[in-house]
TrEMBL record:
Descriptive protein name: HNH endonuclease
Domain of life according to the entry: Bacteria
High-level lineage: Bacteria, Pseudomonadati, Bacteroidota, Flavobacteriia, Flavobacteriales
Length: 312
């Protein structure tokens, strides 16, 4: 729902530098010893051994770990063509790659440091919850989701653009889990466009300020959406539970949040507000596209406020 910035080359390169040595050691170990999973021994056969030797080169590993969001799909296609059964977790190479990139690689990452560097404040999947990360010792951090699940795509286990900070709701049991994004036609937050999602609403009752039966008089709807993401994360049903946010914006648009109030704030003695700051005061949330990650429901607020004429 919230698009993420891909121009983070310094952070991406630093991430590779952190995992590179660990990955090389793991590949060397697997080539020599294979691995064991659920008491079953897996050892690389001839073609898999050649692949792992190629993978053990720094330039090849870097290409995989730092692959751009759109290139991940191309790498998937290449792997599927070369090893047709690789995406089954009973496959020999799948288990070897899981040992290298997940058990050894991903599990060695400092998740707190990784998340902190991204400077993302809300869950990109739903924009409903904060994903603040405290110090490592505090043991409070958001989830780190593999957009392409590690059981199916273990070779993306430490790929920078495959690791998405997310809330416990979106990364919880029974939600995304091991769902394959390619099958569900989901879109990574790194590939989302600004207008892929758009909220709107319907007034279901005339007495929307105080409905007699106590039920919400506002129906929150998507005017535009990425259907795969909405289905998997159940965004349609979840946002219907937050109709009170929209109702408050409707009330503001009907009462005193008009041009005169905006002019009053703009000329407030001793304070200077930018247009985006005035918008934030008016509607109670961020509205600039590059700031939508800073507060929950910002995308909802922005779209509804635009529709109501609270902001322009």
């Amino acid at each position: 729902m919230i698009s993420l910035n891909t121009s983070q080359l310094v952070i991406v390169d630093a991430h590779f530098d952190i995992v590179f040595e660990r990955l090389q050691k793991s590949i060397t170990y697997v080539l020599k010893n294979g691995c064991t999973y659920k008491k079953i021994k897996y050892t690389p056969v001839l073609d898999e051994r050649a692949f792992l030797n190629t993978l053990n080169q720094k330039s090849v590993l870097k290409g995989l770990v730092t692959a751009s969001p759109d290139k991940l799909a191309l790498l998937r296609r290449y792997m599927l063509k070369r090893f047709p059964n690789i995406h089954f977790n009973t496959n020999n190479l799948n288990r070897l790659l899981y040992k290298i990139f997940v058990s050894d690689g991903y599990n060695s990452i400092d998740k707190h440091a990784f998340i902190s560097k991204l400077e993302i404040d809300t869950c990109p999947y739903c924009n409903r919850n904060y994903v603040y990360s405290l110090s490592k010792s505090a043991k409070i951090k958001p989830e780190l989701d593999h957009f392409y699940p590690k059981s199916i795509y273990p070779y993306f286990g430490v790929s920078f653009y495959n690791l998405i900070p997310s809330c416990q709701t979106c990364n919880g049991l029974g939600v995304k889990g091991e769902t394959d994004p390619f099958i569900k036609k989901m879109v990574s937050p790194y590939l989302l466009k600004e207008d892929d999602y758009e909220f709107t609403f319907d007034l279901t009752k005339l007495d929307y300020l105080s409905p007699l039966d106590g039920k919400s008089s506002v129906d929150v709807k998507f005017l535009k959406q990425v259907e795969g993401n909405v289905e998997v994360f159940k965004l349609d049903s979840l946002y219907k539970l937050h109709s009170d946010h929209v109702l408050e914006l409707i009330v503001k648009s009907k009462v005193y949040y008009n041009d005169k109030y905006r002019e009053y704030l703009n000329n407030f003695e001793g304070l200077s507000f930018s247009d985006s700051e005035i918008d934030r005061v008016l509607i109670g949330n961020y509205t600039s596209l590059n700031e939508l990650h800073k507060r929950p429901f910002s995308k909802l607020y922005r779209d509804i406020a635009l529709e109501l004429g609270l902001i322009v």
